[in-house]
Recover the amino acids of this structure.
């Protein structure tokens, strides 16, 4: 009994990654429930609290329009990643779509990175809108270095929240994924000090905040904008790196467990 | 329940001669699959797919058809036994370069156009099928700019079929491909599936439509409760169901049901060549025989008043029901 062999070589993972990213971005942009809410929430909150209700106040010597821009940028980056990667993956899983993709030669890494990069792109869109609004209507001033670090941090923050999204997708079925994500996303933003300075929270919540990744991301953002912040940048980075690894580990454990069941 | 079928001729031409056995492209050897919840999906099952043939995996719900497909796609691993696709483990990414699949997918991303979905899948393969050829083969002309979410049920199935073709793969798995298609679309897809086999591609098809297996397959493998009940050409499987034998024999393939109004008594009918069973009901006699020509010749000679004659080949559905119920 003769058997055929495998002569062909695969196209490069990088090329596939580029095409996946392109179509993932298009898909999410066209999915209004995603694009409108993920961009709309931080922009709306910023207009309301950073611009309209702002009477020229300062937080620790920093204009409110500047301070809140930092907080809502982190909020935006988190929303884009949690909804894009988490809810997006939960949808692909439940529809059997991921199974079809996995049966194809698509490298799984290309798929995951495409989702993560799409979330990053949405983060950049959100921050660009916030910056435009803040500079035009909030009289906020940013140096080129500050703008660069604002964008850089937004890109980086997509990673821990994307990892968290993977865990949500593995645990929660599609029809409850958006609800559960909102239950994580909104309280975590508030309690992590992204909507108002951590000092304004009651003492027991203030002590709880350092458990949350939003707190560390927020503090890094405030450090970059020369606003009052707690702790050193290094410990915040270490926390976020550790958080990402733990989330990634849990997600991969859950994935392998579900694979063994199938 | 049986139907008058005119399948004898096309079935015969579809049979691959036994003397020229093409190479095996995929196989399951003694595969047992027990899920974590204790369900035994496959029970020491072996099957092999040869180059250029269309094989239909037929069985009731829960027979293990989709499990067999998932194993060959490397989406699941066997509890014991060996799964080979092009001589490699199907979980090896290289094996996936040569397979294409249409699975029972609830939904593809709704907000991507047909064109974009196909373009994306083509990037996965080293030598994909030309774009225009995919569109033509799947009957998607004029639908290329529609979002997946705007397609009708049948159009969605056709796009998923297009994705299975995208890689121009040598081995294509189609899990219930014509669910939700109307008769015309189903026949259109059958033509495409036959065209794939004509190009030397191997197609494994699972289906609930017995008619589909009968119309398409070179070989039918009947599965029930995770085991192969029988396999053979559609004609062989039908006759196995009719005669109750699980091994095909040349005489069995000729089995026919003769129905007519005759004055001959049951004892005479029983004595006719090859007769295994007779029934008389409302003036009509039903005779099952493995030598229909000889039996008919005698009947017509003995009873000149014989009328309302019908000769019926066993329907696949009957064979299928007979075979799967026997296995239980």
């Amino acid at each position: 009994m003769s058997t055929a062999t495998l002569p062909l070589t695969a196209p490069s993972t990088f090329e596939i990654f580029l095409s996946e990213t392109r179509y993932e971005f298009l898909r999410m942009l066209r999915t209004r429930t995603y694009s409108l809410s993920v961009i709309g929430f931080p922009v709306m909150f910023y207009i309301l609290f950073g611009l309209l209700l702002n009477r020229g106040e300062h937080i620790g010597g920093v204009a409110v329009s500047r301070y809140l821009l930092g907080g809502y940028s982190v909020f935006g980056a988190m929303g884009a990643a949690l909804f894009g990667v988490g809810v997006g993956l939960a949808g692909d899983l439940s529809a059997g779509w991921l199974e079809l993709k996995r049966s194809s030669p698509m490298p799984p890494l290309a798929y995951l990175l495409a989702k993560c990069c799409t979330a990053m792109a949405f983060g950049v869109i959100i921050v660009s809108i916030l910056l435009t609004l803040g500079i035009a209507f909030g009289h906020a001033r940013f140096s080129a270095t500050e703008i660069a670090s604002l964008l850089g941090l937004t890109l980086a923050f997509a990673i821990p929240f994307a990892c968290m999204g993977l865990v949500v997708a593995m645990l929660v079925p599609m029809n409850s994924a958006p609800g559960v994500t909102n239950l994580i996303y909104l309280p975590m933003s508030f309690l992590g000090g992204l909507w108002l300075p951590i000092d304004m929270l009651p003492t027991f919540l203030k002590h709880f905040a350092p458990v949350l990744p939003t707190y560390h991301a927020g503090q890094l953002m405030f450090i970059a904008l020369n606003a009052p912040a707690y702790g050193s940048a290094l410990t915040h980075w270490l926390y976020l790196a550790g958080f990402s690894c733990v989330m990634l580990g849990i997600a991969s454990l859950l994935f392998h467990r579900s694979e063994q069941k199938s | 329940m049986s139907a008058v079928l005119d399948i004898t001729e096309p079935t015969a031409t579809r049979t691959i001669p036994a003397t020229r056995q093409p190479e095996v492209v995929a196989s399951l050897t003694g595969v047992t699959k027990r899920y974590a919840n204790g369900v035994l999906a496959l029970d020491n099952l072996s099957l092999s797919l040869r180059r250029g043939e269309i094989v239909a995996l037929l069985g009731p719900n829960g027979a293990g058809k989709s499990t067999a497909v998932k194993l060959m796609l490397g989406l699941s691993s066997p509890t014991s036994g060996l799964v080979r696709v092009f001589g490699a483990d199907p979980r090896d990414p290289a094996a996936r370069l040569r397979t294409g699949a249409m699975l029972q997918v609830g939904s593809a991303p709704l907000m991507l156009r047909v064109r974009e979905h196909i373009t994306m899948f083509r990037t996965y393969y080293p030598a994909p099928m030309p774009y225009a050829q995919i569109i033509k083969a799947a009957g998607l002309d004029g639908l290329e700019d529609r979002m997946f979410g705007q397609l009708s049920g049948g159009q969605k199935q056709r796009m998923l079929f297009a994705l299975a073709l995208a890689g121009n793969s040598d081995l294509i798995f189609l899990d219930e491909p014509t669910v939700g298609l109307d008769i015309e679309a189903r026949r259109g897809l059958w033509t495409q599936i036959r065209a794939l086999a004509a190009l030397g591609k191997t197609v494994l098809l699972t289906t609930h439509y017995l008619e589909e297996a009968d119309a398409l397959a070179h070989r039918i493998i009947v599965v029930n409760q995770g085991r192969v009940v029988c396999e053979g050409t559609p004609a062989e499987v039908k006759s196995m169901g009719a005669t109750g034998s699980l091994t095909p024999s040349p005489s069995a393939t000729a089995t026919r049901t003769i129905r007519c109004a005759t004055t001959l008594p049951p004892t005479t009918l029983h004595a006719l060549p090859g007769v295994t069973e007779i029934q008389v009901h409302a003036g009509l006699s039903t005779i099952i025989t493995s030598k229909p020509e000889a039996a008919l010749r005698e009947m017509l000679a003995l009873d000149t008043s014989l009328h309302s004659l019908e000769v019926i080949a066993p329907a696949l559905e009957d064979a299928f029901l007979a075979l799967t119920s026997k296995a239980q």
In short: Residues 43 and 165 of chain A are 22 Å apart (CA to CA).
